[in-house]
Structure formats: structure tokens, C-alpha cells
Amino acid sequence: MSDPAFDVIAIGEPLIEFNQTQSSKPEYLQGFGGDTSNMAIAAARLDARSAYATRVGDDAFGRMLLELWRSEGVDTRGVARDARAPTGIYFVTHGANGHEFSYLRSGSAASRLSPDNLPLGAIRTARVLHLSGISQAISASACDACFAAIDAARGAGAKISYDTNLRLKLWPLPRARAVIHASLALADWALPSIDDAKLLFGREDPDAIVEACHEAGTPLVVLRCGSAGCVVSDGRKRERIAGHRVQAVDATGAGDCFDGAFAVRILAGDDPVTAARYANAAAALATTGYGAVAPLPRHADVAALLAQAPAQ
User: Fold this and answer.
1) What fold is seen in the domain 6-308?
2) Where are the domains of the chain?
3) pLDDT digits (tens, 9 = 90+) for 279-307
4) How confident is the model over 85-137, as pLDDT tens digits?
5) b/e for 132-157, b at 16 or more Cβ within 10 A?
């Protein structure tokens, strides 16, 4: 097989973001979001050859996203422009219980993904395919497209990176559980967040959640626990990695940053614990600014934070 064109290709729904500032007179900063888009950009900022597969509206927001990916070094040959559907948007507000999302995404261009319009050529030339529960939840055809992408990527020898990323506003819990369990059986590594996983598996204890992922068929599990760090398990060895103390202002996109950083370091040859320690630091830095994309770190930033951290 020839050398892969991309280190990472992600598939899913990109969104335009309006993020509320926490000032005396709140305003909304325009930014960009969509979990798998954030992941692809995070990987590119950490020097990976990154690409994205999706559909955007043939509108101003779609053009803004295309310009964003090009400026960030994310390949857009797998992105189609759809003149019959809009680009999705969302709002982030901040309150006593953290950040809250409000979406305007019904009928978005990305939801029109299907096995028939997948950029299979690009997918087959990547070392890692990344997708999430959101990629599958936006529509039945997008869900089918995700499984077709997995088949194509695995057939070409790629690894499958999977973030459960549960959004119950998009689909009912029984369907989410069925689809996510089926995806875990096909993933080379899974990246659930603890809040999602408690609902998915009906378990509270982190070790029990990790076991549930292994039971579903995933060989490598990294349970993201927010500011508390993460738990890494390959089924034989399990290790907890502590979080970092940073001046956090907005956690939007931190988990997506973790996903991108973890894939980059696995591809660089790190063992899973070392890769997760790096991703943990990258995700912490992603909380130090507003929006999902703006605060995504570069390698030098992550290395500096790791150098300051006490030995674990």
C-alpha cells in the first residue's frame, strides 16, 4: 500500500458557533465548532496531516468553515457544498451549572451525508478515521455513512478513533446505546467522557465504565474525566492521570482537543499512557480561552505545560 495521504481524517458535522462571553454585558463571539471538526483542527495544530469529510451549505457560513479549515491546514477535498441545505449553527451560554448549548441544525447539509456521497478515496488514504456519536446521531443516513466509512477505513488498514459524545437532544437513549455499542466493537480506541458514559452504561464508577467499553469490544479505552484527568486502559493495565490546574474559562471543545492530541501522539509512536498524558495537557489548555477552536494549543504550548507538571 502506498503511503497514506493523511494522518487523520474526521467525519461529522461542522457548525458555526456563537459563544457568550462572561462579562458584565454579555456578548456573543462568533467562532466555529462541531466536535469532529474541532478534532481535525486540533490534530492539524499539533502538526498532523489532517483532513475532514462532511457537507456544508452553499452559504456564507459554509464558506467561512472552508476558509477556516484551509487556514488551519485541514484538507477539504472531502468536503462537499450542498445548495439545498444550510450550514448548522449553535449558541453557547454560561451559567452556574457550566456551559449550555442551543442548536439550530435540523436539516443541515451535514445531516445529508450518506454512503452514496462519502469521499471514500480520502477516507481510504488516512491512518486514522475519527468519528463520534454526534456524527451518527444527526440523521439516519449520516449514521449509515459513518459505518460505511468505518468499513472503508478498516479495509484500507486504518485505525478507528471513536468518541461516544452522547447528545440526547439528537436521538433517544435506546437507539444511542445500540449504535454506540455497535461502534465500540469496531473501534481501535474509544474516548468516552464520564458524564456521557454514566448514561450510556448505567454505571457510576469509572472502572466499571472502562470495563463496559472493553466488554463492548474496544481494546483501548481512555475515559475522560474533565478537570479530574483521565483513566487509560488496554484491558491489562489501567492508569489514572491527574488533571492540570489552569485558568479555565470555557470547556467547549476540550474533549475534542483531547481526541485530536491523543491520535497524533499514538501515530507518533507513544504508548497509550504517554499519549493520554499529552492529550490531557492539551485539553486543559483548550479551556483557557473562549470558543471551541480559538484556544486549541500548539505543540510548544503542550510541551511547556507538561514540563511544569509534577511527575506522575
Assistant:
1) UDP-N-acetylmuramoyl-L-alanine:D-glutamate ligase (3.40.1190)
2) 6-308
3) 999 999 999 998 889 999 999 999 999 99
4) 999 998 888 777 777 788 888 899 999 999 999 999 999 999 999 999 999 99
5) bbbbbbbbeebbbbbbbbbebbeebe
